[in-house]
Structure formats: C-alpha cells, structure tokens
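Retro notes (design track)

What went well: tokenization of the new backbones is finally stable.
What didn't: we kept losing track of which sequence belonged to which structure.
Fix going forward: every design gets posted as structure first, then sequence, in one message. First example under the new rule, 348 residues:
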C-alpha cells in the first residue's frame, strides 16, 4: 500500500508571483482541444494532435528572451487524433486516434503521410522504441501492437486486461496503464511477455504515466488530483507514496499530464485546475506551482529535449460535457514557458 505524503514547500519558489518570466503563445493553434503534445528528440519542433482531426508541427526558435513559433506543416486524420510519437532520429512523426489508423509522417523530408497499421478501436497511446526500432501502439481494443514500420501487419499483438489508458517507455522499461487500474511492466528485451503487474492505492484509473529516469519505478496521475509514486522492486515498496497536486481547497481536478525533466530528476504535473507544478519526488519538495492562472484546463504538457522549454495546452477538457462547452470562451491555446534551472533543479 502507498502512504499519503506531503511535499515540503520551498517558500521563495512556491508561486510565480504577479508576472511571468517568460510565457509565449504558439501561433495558429488548433481549432479544438489538444489531445497530446510532443517535442522532437533532436530539435525544437513541437507537434500537437487535436480533436479537430489535425496533426500540426511548429518550429520553436529561442534566441535569448525572443521566442518565436513558426507553423511548418500539418496533416489530417478522418476523426479526432489522440496521440503522437517521434522517431528517435527526429525525422518522422507517428499519430493515431479515433479513426483507428496508425499514420507515419516523414515530416522533415516533406513526404506524404501513410497508413502503416490499424487497430479495432481508437488508438489512445503510442511510443517509438529505439532500442528495437519498433513502434508500439495502445488501443481501446484492449491490445498493444508492435509495428515494424516497413510492414503493414503488426509484429506482435499483446492482449491487455482492459482498454489502454496510458503508456510510457524509457529505454528497456515500458509501463502500460489500463482502464481496470492495472499497471503492467514490460521488459523491452522481451516485449512479447508481461514482466510484472501492479496495482496502486489510487482509486481511479490512470490518466498519465511516466517512468523514472533510472527505470526503477513509475509515476501515475489520475482524475482524483493525486500522483502515485511506485517502485518496480518489491523490496522498495516502503518508498511508495502518493501526493496531492491538482487541488483547490475541497475542489479536486484531474491530473492530465506527468513528465520527468530530461536533465534533472524532477517532474512536472499539469491538470484540469488550469495549473502546472514542478516537483522533486526524491526530496519531497514542491519547487514551483502556477497558482490558478489559466482560465481553462491544461489538457497536456511536455518538455523539449534539453528541458529548456515546457509546453502546455490550455483548452476545454470536456469533463463537464458538451452542455458546458461555450465556443466563444473555450478557445484553444498552446503556451511555451521557459523554466529557470532554479525552478526545476533539486534543492540540496
């Protein structure tokens, strides 16, 4: 069982204050809610997938305090797009969603997108696995499928106990969250076999997952405004805990995004309360917290490859249904924030 734990505050860094050091809006954002954001692993190219059936790419140029976003290209799906992933060489983008299609887009060469695979239900998650040169996709059809992008049929179809709700890959470790609150660890040296299953004390299914930088465990964000920290090794269970983040008094909001910083062993959370925060799980410190600044939920977020840019989307998350959606006020924005090292580096 996990224990509930508190994060110690770092007072001088707890809130952003009255002025933001650096916030930049991405130009020509999607016309509907953003479902995923992903940066190229080799350059500052940002891809967003959206409920408007589009996959869009911007080039982000940072020169000192001058930050510009330049739309580069876009492609369409037949229905809303839910996820994307980059090939490790930064040349190619993969996408999937409600049309059940796995698309490959040779973005940097200017090539046309092509369908390289299909699922039997919407595709919720995907990731490129560079160690074995394979794309993995997770679907609401209760399967994982591994794709050699040169072939139209999957290398392997892995049955899941329920719908795929979240997925994260880091080197040889992949963790998959399913709608029945199972978390399944795969050792990607043997990706066709489950390595281990976990449950957590979180009461609701996972919305987002990331694997520890040292591959010794994983973090989970759920709709209960809480993040669970779990270790793979049973001998480390005493280190497991949960902490509250997307809360405003008695109001509880979904944690929609959790990501470790690519340089420092700290993490970012963001959610439907319209805030994001930076945390040090090892020292249990809250490093930085955006205090209710966004007028709409943050649906997803990501770091660029060196952690110098934190991108997040502000838009309606549909948690209150279509009846509460006002197109006049529920506009979509993608925001770029340039964190200082002091905001994301552990405090000694």
């Amino acid at each position: 069982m996990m224990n509930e734990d508190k994060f110690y505050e770092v007072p001088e860094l707890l809130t952003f204050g009255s002025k933001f050091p650096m916030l930049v809006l991405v130009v020509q954002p999607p016309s509907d809610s953003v479902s995923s954001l992903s940066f190229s692993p080799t350059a500052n190219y940002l891809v967003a997938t959206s409920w408007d059936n589009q996959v869009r790419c911007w080039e982000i140029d940072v020169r000192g305090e001058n930050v510009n976003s330049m739309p580069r290209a876009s492609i369409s799906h037949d229905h809303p797009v839910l996820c994307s992933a980059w090939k490790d060489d930064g040349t190619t983008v993969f996408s999937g969603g409600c049309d059940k299609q796995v698309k490959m887009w040779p973005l940097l060469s200017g090539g046309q997108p092509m369908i390289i695979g299909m699922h039997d239900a919407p595709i919720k998650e995907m990731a490129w696995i560079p160690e074995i040169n394979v794309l993995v996709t997770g679907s609401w059809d209760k399967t994982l499928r591994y794709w050699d992008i040169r072939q139209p049929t999957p290398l392997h179809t892995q049955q899941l106990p329920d719908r795929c709700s979240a997925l994260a890959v880091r080197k040889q470790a992949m963790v998959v969250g399913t709608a029945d609150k199972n978390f399944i660890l795969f050792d990607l040296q043997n990706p066709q076999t489950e390595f281990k299953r976990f449950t957590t004390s979180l009461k609701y299914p996972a919305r987002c997952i990331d694997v520890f930088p040292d591959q010794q465990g994983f973090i989970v964000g759920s709709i209960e405004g809480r993040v669970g920290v779990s270790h793979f090794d049973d001998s480390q269970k005493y280190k497991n805990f949960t902490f509250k983040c997307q809360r405003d008094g008695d109001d509880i909001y979904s944690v929609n995004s959790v990501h470790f910083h690519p340089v420092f062993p700290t993490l970012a959370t963001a959610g439907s309360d319209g805030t994001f925060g930076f945390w040090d799980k090892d020292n249990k410190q809250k490093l930085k917290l955006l205090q209710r600044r966004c007028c709409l939920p943050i649906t997803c977020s990501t770091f660029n490859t060196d952690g110098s840019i934190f991108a997040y989307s502000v838009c309606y998350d549909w948690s209150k249904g279509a009846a509460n959606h006002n197109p006049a006020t529920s506009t979509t924005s993608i925001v770029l924030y340039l964190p200082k090292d002091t905001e994301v580096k552990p405090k000694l």
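Added context from the reviewer: The longest strand covers residues 66-76.
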